[in-house]
Design a protein that fits this description.
elongated
Amino acid sequence: MNAFHVLGGLLALWALAVAFLGITRENFPATKGSELAVIAISITLVLGAVGSAALTALAERHEDEKKEREEGKEHAALVLPR
């Protein structure tokens, strides 16, 4: 399990909670302050999930490239005619 799994799961739970509250409560969020809090939490979770997904993908790519170099594998090249 990595950071993306945790943050992505938290984002999904947050989305369900906000949707439930928005559907069941006519005045959700009730105040301007609570509206800003919901927005701030949502933005933080989205940026965290997307950022951790990108960093995880980069880290895995670097690990794969390192492993291929250690095993002596060559990358395939596409040769274009002139």
